[in-house]
Amino acid sequence: MKAMMLTGIREMEMRDLPDPKISNPEDVLVRLSVVGVCGSDVHYYETGRIGSQVVEYPFTVGHESAGTVVEVGDGTQRLKPGDRIAIDPAKTCGNCDQCNCGRSNTCRHTAFLGCPGQAEGSLSEFIVMPESSCYPIKDTTSFDEGSISEPLSIGIYSIKNSIPLTGARIGILGMGPIGMCVRFPARDAGVEKVYCTDKVRERLAMAAGMGVDYAGNPDTQDVVGEILDLEPSGLDVVFECCGQQDAIDQAIDLLKPGGKLMLIGIPQVDRIAFTIDKMRRKEICIQNVRRQEGCVRRALDLMEEKRVDVNSLVTHRFPFSDTKSAFDLVAAYGDGVMKAMIDFECGT
Predict the structure, then answer these.
(1) Which sequence spans correspond to the domains of the chain?
(2) Omega before residue 185 within 30° of 0, cis
(3) What gap in Å lies between CA 26 and CA 65, rounded to an integer?
(4) Domain 2-152+293-343, architecture per CATH
(5) Which CATH class is domain 162-288?
(6) Of the residues 57, 80, 95, 200, which has the maximum number of CB atoms within 10 A of its CB?
């Protein structure tokens, strides 16, 4: 099979690899149809690392995936060849203390697709996955939607672990794919007001088209002052979705006393800082978000029931052979890109 592999900083090559084989009876062989380009993939592309997770070249990234089952192991129970599936990229052990207490997202032995030292990613023609990581999708659900179930499940998990949102006033800082995937379930959860920021004009325009109450650019506007003019008491919860120090600072300023900050974005730096005086006096609660736990099925249900439409997030589509161009575009925030999709069925 062919795989698109990182070979150095901002370097990527198509390599020929042996076709993967089923070795465990509970595994399935999947032909990939689409892979979404995620910000974490781009971190590895640009810097070769995220914190302590360092790429050893060559390495394949990619984890937002959907495709078709072509072969199943003898121990599988739900899937058969021909089934269309969305893939949960986390392969967890199911036996450690974290898995046993309902925290599989912090499994001690996770093998996550495209994570250095854990598992090769899904930017390849075929992949073998545990049946438990594969979710059937209906014929009316697109492969794009199957792929986006991964970031949408993160948004759902973030909402679930924030506060009761009925009637709440919230902020979403960073309206890239993750910010958008927070907005969708937040609306479904009954928020009263949504205030959004981003530095990319096209992303703000898309957010405004989704009916948010405010969309501002921190590079050209006093977003904190403008939001607090509209909400003098402050916001109930802020979802920080871009991993930027200035957004974290703005979040602390925007939150009301007793408010909650959800840290979802992945910083490229090893350390971030908080203004402890403001944070302590407001008694701000801070919670990190580590991927998701048990929310993929919910994400697919929301899309299949047409309560959430994520198709507009796919702004650019690239053939597998031109994956590097997709990564360069996303790294540069070029052409108003929201979600670049690698399409294995798309011609050159």
Answers:
(1) 2-152+293-343, 162-288
(2) no
(3) 19
(4) Alpha-Beta Complex (3.90)
(5) alpha beta
(6) 200
Is 2-152+293-343's fold the same as 162-288's? no
Closest CA to 76 of 129, 33, 31: 129
CA 274 to chain centroid, in Å, comes to 24
Phi, psi of 90 (to 5 degrees): -90, 120
Q: What is the pLDDT along the chain (348 residues), one digit of tens a residue?
A: 999 999 999 999 999 999 999 999 999 999 999 999 999 999 999 999 999 999 999 999 999 999 999 999 999 999 999 999 999 999 999 999 999 999 999 999 999 999 999 999 999 999 999 999 999 999 999 999 999 999 999 999 999 999 999 999 999 999 999 999 999 999 989 999 999 999 999 999 999 998 899 999 999 999 999 999 999 999 999 999 999 999 999 999 999 999 999 999 999 888 999 999 999 999 999 999 999 999 999 999 999 999 999 999 999 999 999 999 999 999 999 999 999 999 998 865
* Sequence-ordered list of residues with C-beta below 8 angstroms from that of 253, at least 6 positions apart, any chain: 224, 228, 278
- Output phi, psi for 179, to 5 deg: -60, -45
Bridge-based pairing state of the strands 27-36 and 126-130: antiparallel
Answer positive or negative: Cα dihedral of 217, 221, 215, 335. Answer: negative
Are 184 and 164 a contacting pair, CB within 8 Å? no
The two tokens of residue 91 are 């392969």
Six-digit token string for 247: 């957004």
